[in-house]
């Protein structure tokens, strides 16, 4: 016969699957001899059986009877006894805490008769009636699913009638009347009277918990969190203890250390003469835990002793709920407690110092997300400020500067030493120089995966996007707030990328000490406990890591920063950024060239500039590998927008303007190159194969730069990467060209150059034919952005605004797959390609250079499938280092 | 010791891997006792060894010496003997015939001395000198790689000098002089004299054949045909026999049946006193083979007997090359011969009737491509016509009609009973009604995978595209040819989709009897031998096939045709075609709706029309399954082009036009919906999830139509297909909606509706997570067009023009992957998805509804991976039926 019920004395903390989190911890505390009110847990198996059959399993009723009888025997009272009733609480408790599920029904066992017994036994008629009132209300709302407002309104009406404002001002008679009113509501609304039989109350509450597993919000949450739908929830039945019994009673929550700062010493709140729900409801102000010492020193001392034992036992910060009933302390719950980022780092190192955990365990107590939070500057929240808009918190941080409405002006103003905030309706690749120059970016359109958001996050630059209450007018160079206030170019604004808030004026910013530490400007020995903790944790992570961390960096400056932040190479140097700005005109010349001579002229002009780019980068990363990607984006990105230009030409023609012929010629070229789906068009290796000489020029620039560095005594280590390869034939073709150039440059410079040539794996076909591609490729770098686009068949530019919000709402996505790798789909591509590639070339070096290289969950996945390194923006390098260490330590699986 | 040489007496026809095709067949004929000049074959292994080491394997020289000695003993002459020289030919012979390889050197063994011996023995000085001249010329050109023109110009100069026009007019002295000239050319150009040692001639020729395996054209061809690069070629060394010995000598080619028509009886050409190369060069007119009977009856009778024996032996049409030397017949080559489509069908059934092959073998002797050729009408080539342009042969057939330059006019004119040719620069989905109305489509832009080409092929409609010498002016309603001729709207033109030619005026067309047969208008019993043969072959194919064939059809008419052509269901009914034309306005209303009421109004207006569409389709396909795909394309396809509209608005504003506000509102909507990459945007299931009610309306229309058909006594079998699913959650969401609608419609109509719901597999993610998707999907249909786009990361609309031609040239593609399934990449997706889907749901019905469903090679692949059916355009259904039968019969592998 299946065992569906466990007494608290029968379980332990490792039985979460069967008893849920709450039940397992209650059992653990019971086993530790802590004062837990007696009770028992109905298992998740019972819930599963209920959900499968639509009714509780036959055996359950008898088992509950047996355990209830045992409980009654221990307590010396019976459930709902007329004279001295045993009352119980019923609480849900799944393996993972889950919003949307039914949580608690207190005071089960009270009815029209036992309430009098409780009044007598407690000597407190008001307490008894209030408890009964709470039962009917909670039962009606959570077990019967009635509208909560029905009850709240009845209380409000009564208070009005009595002329009082506080619940506590209602008398015992008032409350007795309220019980009658509530029972009336229950009967009218549910069609049946409030059940007087305590056992029926209990059974109905248990089944309501079972059913709440499939409440809409719970389903949505599970879908989003990828929690299996078939886990089921346990139900805890626990003897009631009352913190609202009178003056020598109370209830509280506490932490074994300060969860906000990580400071040592207990921390918590206490509320006299109250039940737990009153603490949550915030009806009265709570006292600090320390106050309890003065109120009830025995309980306080006992509580502190228990907390010490719990932390020792769980080897971590614990949070607890407790109740004191007439001077007796009861433990109602404990679990490993949540904490802030700062606290996490401090506590982890404290526990090491206290000998509780090891270094390797310490890095599992912090996360990359927490480290990232510590790296962003924050506004000083103590200073008053004027909020003018709120958008999405696209890239965290705090930035202050003059609002500027186009990128050229932003760059120009920044060059004069002014701090600027670039404000746009939305950004595009042409805004890159403005974004680089700006302190932060504010847009009125686009979501968390818009161009502005993605690029800003990549740069570690503050960004608020989609602040749609702002009317941005780039012509008038101003924006209008929803209250009509107009902010003109040059006015100072402050944007908070962590909260999405936009403030008027200069809000003071506190720089992050952790960034100062990574930059080498703050000594961990003297920089305070937090910096010291980060320093220690990073050292452990670096030692533990199997995967290396490189950076995505396109110029010498970024490379230098990446090195300071601990990158051991460049995983992605994008050459397209080198074709913007002044050089754009040369690219336009290349594209519009009518003759081979014109084309060669453009290539010849670009060569020395490219070479200088690479000299700087190779110098900054001397001795470390630098993966340089040949030109990737479609050529027409270097040309004007077709619609804007068409309008210009049409207007010029209608006005017979002088320059209409020039513009018309340009328009014809733009039309010729226009693609309906540029993301699926002439890009990457296709461009290299179609525009003869382009990739050869780039290869020559890289190799000449390499030779120059070698001659200067350096140790340049370039790796040439061909983008968007779908078939090995493409790569072979380009590789031939590169090898040919290498021979020429070797002869010309006298430096023997044997370039390493590899490829991006960013198309599903590349992943599936990785065994063939590895015959030509000396390394793979996973371009998980493009791989996500093609595997899902949606483009980052297009779909985010159009439907991601719907998908997140419907629980189809938990996170945007552009933020965190879709391991179920895109991850399979990576796994397949890694395995196939290494089958052909066992030592094949594998890395990832997409956005996901800096995302903690994704990093764990990459470690699991055996990649050699991840590459991310310089600012994310410390996060990636930490997660690389954590992933190695945890055997690859992240903690939920 | 490896055996590198095989005498013709040692091999047989099944040794093609080792001896090449030519060598294996020479050996086979030798084994059959046919008069083959003695000789031997150097194996492909020797070639491989040569290519690996850069020189012939040590053992080869001795083995050649041994076999040559044996040959000399048999012939009683030695190679290059001064008095009576043995001469040999050296010919390449790989497993597959391959353009670009060195083919033949004749007369090896002649030198300055042996040429005199040959003159004496033959009593023909001119013959001897001519033979020597040919050797030096061929050796120079093919072995030494000299420019062929050098020799040709020398001949031309000599003829000019002698005042003659024919080679045959040159005397023995002239030819002796030419030999000297040629030897001079060889020495000057190659730096070494023409080798006089016959063995050196032989060895150099053999190594030249080896090296020609890696000639550029050969490599390119292998890359395109996916022939492994490491097969190597064999070399055949064969005693020379001379058809140019005099009047009782000659040479010819022959077929055992007429390869053009398939008529019984031998067929061939004969040329007296000539060598094989003269036949090919076409210097003199050949005689028909029959004439040989009068010239040399003994040889003729012997030849006919041999041909009968060969056909019996090879059990198929054979072609042969033969030479008669002074009255003695020699067989120089045989192989299974190429034939026309018509001949293939006739010969296959003839051979069955003759008891040579079985029915199952007969269907392997024809192909779907051949059947397709027979189904297209052709222009009567005997009628004179005026060619005005040439484009790409995008969709075969012959069409005549009045040139019309827009689709509305085309439709209007066609409605009056006129035949029209739709002429456009390029087409887009809005031209669909015009394309349907037209006899054929002519475009001046776009290649074989442009919209016009793909849609026309889908409809089985004649199309010439990319005729870029035509200047199409849709405003003036005319096109200008390269010679300045202007063709105005209404003038009759004729387009040949098989050749890409465009003619002026009405060129007479011969309808295809095979189509008339499939349409049921021609009785196979009385329709002639071809129709009878097709009828018999189709019956065998249908019996043999494991896979079913359905059609892609969007209306009742197409469904009816598909049924006549043998489709057993509809695999893809595209509902987007139902939203064009008049209904477009309603879709625009739906998109631009400001309120839910407006949106619902548009949906309510569309519902009855959709229902009627489905009633007609389900009626036409009564009793057969009909897979209906819910709306797939991005909404903005139903809106005006953003650039055109922007220009219109800008001009209207500059002129202060009255309607500028309306257009501006429209433009704002268009901008809002504009996507940078619509192919990767808001389409398919995403649309269904975002535009609430749209898919429910379509499901309602389908289910109401089903109920209506059931009530009318019909047997409707709809299958509802959700497009562009990437995650099972998407499908689950829509399925819930459909099930809900089904319940409502069941209640309302009293017909119990349990709709079958499945999905397209057209995204890599869907393929990789097919195991999860199969939990919700009752069937899969592979959308291989989109799957090709996303697997390769290029869109059909964009890349074809931009780089497919480069890729075909560079041998990266053999065929466009949109034409024939890329089995190496996209095919893996199909395979993975099929296996994963069936793991979850063993009986899962699998089909394909992309363009590839009608492509022969792809059909064989689909059979191999276990699909249940293919679906293609109605016109391709017979082709698919044939290939489905062939693929089952051949165990899934196509013959190369």
* Number of helical elements of chain A: 35
Low-confidence stretches of chain A: 891-896
Strand content of chain A: 15-25%
Biggest contact: A-B, 58 and 58 residues
State the share of residues found in helices of chain A, binned by percent: 40-55%
Number of strands of chain A: 31
Major sheet of chain A: 8 strands, mixed
What is the structural class of chain A?
A: alpha/beta
Average per-residue pLDDT of chain A, rounded, comes to 91
Radius of gyration of chain A: 33 Å
Largest sheet, spatial ordering of strands of chain A: 12-22-21-14-15-16-17-13
Oligomer: homodimer
Distance between the termini of chain A: 33 Å
Shape of chain A: elongated
Summarize this structure as a short list of keywords or feature phrases.
homodimer, 896 residues, alpha/beta, 8-stranded mixed beta sheet, 8-stranded parallel beta barrel, 35 helices, 31 strands, 16% strand, elongated
How would you sum up this structure, described in words?
The structure is a homodimer of 896-residue chains. With 896 residues, the first copy, chain A, is an alpha/beta fold. Chain A is built from 35 helices and 31 strands. In chain A, strands 12-22-21-14-15-16-17-13 form an eight-stranded mixed sheet. In chain A, α16 links the parallel β14 and β15. The radius of gyration of chain A is 33 Å and the shape is elongated. The C terminus of chain A is likely disordered. Chains A and B meet through α24, α26, α28, α29 and α31 of A and α24, α26, α28, α29 and α31 of B.
